[in-house]
Each structure stands twice: as C-alpha cells, then as structure tokens.
Amino acid sequence: MNTREAFLSELYSIAHRDNDIFFIATDLGSPSLDVFRKNLSGQFLNVGIAEQNAVLVASGIALSGKRSYVYGLAQFLVLRAFEQVRIYPAGMNLDVTLLGTSVGVANDVAGPTHHTIEDIALMRILPNMQIWSISDEYMAKAFARMSYEVKGPKYIRFDNEMLPAVYNESADFTQRIHTFGEKSDICILSCGNMLHVALAVKDVLNKKGVQVCVADTAILPLSSNEIEELSAKVIFTLEEHTLPGGLGTHVLEIISDNNLQIQVRRVGFDFSKGYYRKNGNRSQIYRDCKMDAMAVADRILREMQ
Amino acid sequence: MNICIPTLKEKAYNLRKTTLEITASAQAGRIASSYSCAEILTALYYTGIMRFDPKDPVSAARDRFIMSKSHASPILYAILADCGFFDKSELDKYAKPDGILGTLLDENVPGAEILGGSLGCGFGIAAGMAFALKRERSRSMVFTLLGDGECGEGSIWETAMFVGFQRLNNLITLIDRNHISASAFIQDDFGNEPFADKWRAFGFNVVTIDGHSFVELLETLKDVRSRRSASPTVVICETVKGKGIDFVENEPFWHSKAVTQDQLEAARKSLTLLNRGDE
C-alpha cells in the first residue's frame, strides 16, 4: 500500500472520532483525501497554492485549541513557508503537523525546483520540531496515530513510491531508530525510501561475506545513546539529501559533540557545483550520483579494505 | 454604547505619553508606528467593542486581537498594562532583561496572543483563528491590525484571498494606513495604490475612515457584531505616522527610533490632546 494512503486513511478514522482535527491541503489531492473532503467537509480545507497562508491558518487553528495538519509538496511547505514554520509551529510549539510529499528526488524528471533535498537540514535546526520519515505502510499507520498523540510540531516525510513492507504491526514505532541485521562494525544509516536502498546494499555485501547492520532513522533528532547503541566502528549515512546539513551532518555533530570514536562516511548529493539538471529518472539520478545499491556497496568495500 | 469622546481622547493622550516615556527610557521601540494607531487601539480596548477579561486572558469567550504590525507593540503594552493584563511595573522594565516586554510581541505577555515581529504573518494567524471560531459557531470575533507597509508582504494577499473566499465575517481587519514604510513614503518608492480597490477585489467590504477620529472609528466599529453581511470587513484607517509629536510626524527617518533624552522635553511639550474639527 502507498504509505501516504495508509497514513491518510488512518488519520481519516481519527478525525472521524475527533472533530477538532483540521486538514489543510495546498492544492494537492489523494484518493483517501477525497473521502475526507466528502465525509468530513467541516474539517477539510483546501487553501490552494498558498503554503505560507496554509501554515499561518493552521497555526491560528492550533492556537484555537485544535490540531491541524498541513498537506503539500514537501519542497514548498519547507522552503516557501520556512519562516512561517519557524515562528509559529516551531517557535510557539504548536500542534501543527506538516505532511510533506515527494521527498528527495521522488519527483525525478521534474528537476531541481521539485527536488526536496534540503528539508532535513532546515527542519532539524528548528526548536521543538520532530522529523518523521516514513519507510513502510505499517510505520505510516502508526505515525498517523502517533501524530495525534504526540504534542508539538512535526514534519512527516512521505515518498511517492510504493515502499515494500519491512515492519509489522507489533513494531514499536515510538523508537527513533530501528535496526536490521546483527550489530556489526559497519552500520548504514538511512530513512524513508533510502532505507530500501540500504537494505539492498546489505544484501549485496552479505553475499560477498561482509556483515553490515542497517538502521532506519525514522525519527529525528537522534541522541548520542542511539548512535552508541549501534556499536559500530564505521557509520555510512545514506540520504537522498544534500550532504551539507542532512542526516550525515546530524550524525557527525552527535559524534563530535560526544567525543564518540566512530568514523563516518556520508553518501548523498554533492550539488556544490550546481543542481542535477539531466532529465534522469530516480534510478538514473542514483546512478549518476553514486547512490545506487551497487555503487554504495562498492564504496563500502573500498573504504573497508 | 455610552462613550464619552473627550475621555477617549484623554486616554489616547495618556497612552502616547506612556509610550514616549518607556521607549525613551529604554532607548528602544518604534514610537512613530505606535502613535499612528493610538486612536484605533483605544477604540478597540476602551469602548466595549472588543470583549476581553484581563483576569482571564485566554478565556474561550474572548475576542482575539492579533497585532500583525507588532512593531507598534509599545503602545499595546501601555494598553494591556492599563487594562490590568499585567502589573504596570512591567512597563518600567520594558526592553530590559528582567522584564517580560520586548520591543516586539511575545506570546508570553498576557493578552499578546502571538510571537510577533515578522510582518505579513499575524493576518494569517488571525484568519486561522476566525476560521476555527466560525466552524465551532463561536460568537467571539477576531480583530487584527496591519500596517500599510506590511501589505507589501505576499503572504498578506494569500491570506486576503483566503479570508475573502471563506467569507470570514467574524474577522475585522484594521489597517493603520500611515503611508510610510520603514524607509520611505510608500507611494514614492514602491506604491500600493489603488489600495482600497485591491481589498475590494479580494472580496472585502472596505470602509475608509480617518484613523485618528473617534467619531469615525466608533461609527464604523459599533455594529461589527451584528452586521448581516457575509463579506469580511477591512477598515482602512487613514493616519499620520508619529501623530502627536510635531517633529516625529510624517518623517520616515523616525520609523525605528525612540525619542532621545535630549529630545524628551520637547516631545513632552509637543504631545497634546488631539482635536479633530468634528469632535
């Protein structure tokens, strides 16, 4: 099941029971939203292509004792409305949840204006803000319930693709990090869609007799405990995000601030000379940027020699 | 409403005086932006037009006031202290580390509602509140004060389109139209004319008045609660930036300034009860 549909249908059931939940769309639909709009019209609002106003209205609604969800393309919620997010949901610690779709280069051929590659960097510097990256449908459903229970501002990242299930209903999704495989000297950290690339890397390496652990950093920010508990000597971060400011940088900061003896290698976009301008699809972009499973596995083998 | 206009004039005079003293003492805060809206805020807070309880500043039944142009916070502080939202001694600690009052608005100030200072934002917050109140069929109204310089922000027009389309007639938008932005006369440098037509085009019922005239302010605001029109109302209040101190009036230079100690005596002398011809 599409993770966005899984989340929205779960949220619809919750909103059905609690009419203090308001859903604010920015001219973006989805099949589950059609039901929401039809059956809960009093709680649904489409403000059009106006992300700044959407975040402000959502904040005004939250200040009226309600819970609001703002739904839109992640790139525009985070970048266009960044200052509004900074002051109100984050600065005033409001119950506003931002639902950002098409993270990373999910909108591949649309080009740089539609590539969400700075969102983790921007959202993680805000006070109170939590970043939740969805990597399968079970997590999506659980995050819908948690978004209702956990107070304060949240930014939830959705991919466009059908992500294969890697969890089940009994998983504890309140944990910030989930590991796959035995702990090992090498650990690959990633989240969302990239978790699935990381798992493919693990398969490639396992076949070559190299043991690696994969960790899904579902909830950011992480703490030093979570990094230490991985018991890794080398962490590879794998992210569909610019290298400056993203998951890798976050991990480096934790390691440096806490004087942990762990090496870090970052895999992500290096756009220091310009954005990706070819009309590549997502797999082409990964190959061009050396982020596909084979390239990452090769790099790990090279670095570990 | 049994309201005595001379009393309101005296109130506005006293609020200007407090604003002068606290900003001069701290050497911080925008006196000119505060003075242009003195009568507008006095009309809201001292006539019963806006309903609030200083002892219960977050009461669900309150009307909301969102100071979108929070650059004029010093005069709002003078009002909130005078109405009893917090102790008047806080005014002596304005813009000082041991006080709660900064030059721009902070939601922790009783009666302030929001963190302010970034122009173009308060209007959208007010719209969200009005939307939520309307959905729950609350009788509370939302009042917001914008600056005309602030209307250069694109987010103002996103919100205007939303308010017009949603017909948020429980939101009263007041614009302190003092014609001066941070650095210049608006119409000299970037322009906003035809200003009233813009609001009309966005679906607002537009009323333009003299923003220093209590007669006109009260006439316009007295029936906001009982109006039957579905359209939201915007009241464009024609004002003079710095109104009340002759050497501050209509001088773009004064936008971000407090009166210096050297100028304080002259400012006190200049400050007098404002009289309009019709009052």
Give the integer mean of the pLDDT values of chain B: 94
Strand order of the largest sheet of chain A: 2-1-3-4-6-5-10
Tell me the overall shape of chain B: globular
Determine Rg of chain A (CA atoms, Å): 19 Å
Dominant shape of chain A:
globular
Q: What is the first-to-last residue Cα distance of chain B?
A: 17 Å
What is the subunit arrangement here? heterodimer
Q: Tally the helices of chain A: what do you get?
A: 12
Specify the structural class of chain B. Answer: alpha/beta
Approximately what portion of the residues of chain A adopt beta-strand conformation? 15-25%
Instruction: Give start-end ranges of low-pLDDT stretches of chain B.
Output: none
Percentage of residues in helical conformation of chain B: 25-40%
Query: Radius of gyration of chain B, Cα only, in angstroms?
Result: 18 Å
* Proportion of residues in β-strands of chain B: 5-15%
